[in-house]
Write a structure and sequence with these properties.
288 residues; mainly beta; Immunoglobulin-like; 6-stranded mixed sheet; 6-stranded antiparallel sheet; 28 strands; 42% strand; rod-shaped; Ig-like domain-containing protein; Ig-like_fold
């Protein structure tokens, strides 16, 4: 027994999940909600002027675009009013996650924070390192990931069932400072005994607030190919230099040089460069 005349009932279309913005390819469910309805009801759906056949379920999965939908209920050959039109807000643009890093260099014993852009309602964040197809972590509540290992990181969002994925973010390369190795350049020119030598220290990433430290490489073996050295800071290099070049004045004997970079206070340092040897007699070559 029905208390109300079906003709006086106006159903309501409800979207589940109730995302305010959808993307082409996502799937949601529409529910035709009728107060006092039951299992004996049939449901009619209309998309613009296209009428779907009656069905026993109050749910439907609409095609993935933003037409207007309405529904009506029917029981004992009597039909309710049609609901108000309901529109899906669908973007035709593929969403893409955006990845930012608090820093691209991990300090000694430290970490950096990666943030995958807030995509909105219902998204989980999938994190990748090196392999863009195998997630290493899934965030259910936010897009923050604190990492202490270097590597190539990216992220993407996913939601729904079946899962709909955003495009992967651009990759961010994270370095561990102690594993960075600068490269020492010495101009390949003939030198006279006592002439000055300009050293240049190159490192990536270059714009990280580096200070550069310059050393004399002192061999500890009579066999040059063993490359066993200790390093002595050159005069004027104790506090490092802001410039990545350094002039050594007047070497009169064959000498080896290395550089490294540091940042922060107290400083964290990169590894040492490979030694370069300057021959004061006029010949220059690098150690193999």
């Amino acid at each position: 027994m029905f208390i109300r005349d079906p003709a006086s009932i106006k159903p309501t279309v409800i979207q589940q999940p109730n995302w305010s913005l959808m993307f082409r390819g996502e799937k949601v469910t529409l529910k035709c909600e009728i107060i006092g309805g039951g299992s004996e009801w049939m449901y009619l759906w209309k998309e613009l002027d296209l009428l779907y056949p009656p069905k026993s379920s109050e749910y439907m999965t609409p095609p993935p675009y933003s037409n207007k939908y309405s529904c009506s209920g029917e029981v004992n050959n009597r039909q309710t009013q049609w609901s108000d039109n309901f529109s899906l807000n669908v973007s035709l643009n593929n969403p893409r996650a955006k990845l930012t890093a608090s820093d691209t260099i991990i300090p000694a014993g430290g970490s950096v924070t990666l943030t995958c852009s807030d995509l909105g309602e219902g998204w989980k964040i999938y994190w990748f390192r090196q392999d863009p197809d195998q997630p290493i972590r899934i965030n259910k509540t936010n897009g923050v990931f604190i990492v202490s290992d270097g590597g190539v990181y990216s992220c993407r969002g996913g939601r729904g069932d079946p899962v709909f994925y955003t495009e992967n973010s651009t990759e961010v390369i994270i370095h561990e400072i102690g594993k960075l190795v600068p490269f020492l350049f010495v101009p390949p020119s003939w030198l006279r005994p006592g002439a000055s030598v300009t050293l240049s220290c190159k490192i990536k990433p270059p714009d990280a607030g580096w200070r550069f430290y310059w050393y004399k490489a002192v061999p500890h073996s009579s066999k040059w190919y063993e490359q066993v050295y200790s390093y002595e800071l050159l005069p004027g290099s104790t506090s490092g230099t802001e410039q990545n070049s350094f002039i050594v004045n007047g070497p009169t004997l064959t000498a080896g040089f290395v550089c490294r970079a540091g940042r922060g206070e107290p400083a964290d340092y990169t590894d040492y460069s490979e030694p370069k040897v300057v021959w004061s007699a006029g010949q220059f070559f690098s150690m193999p």
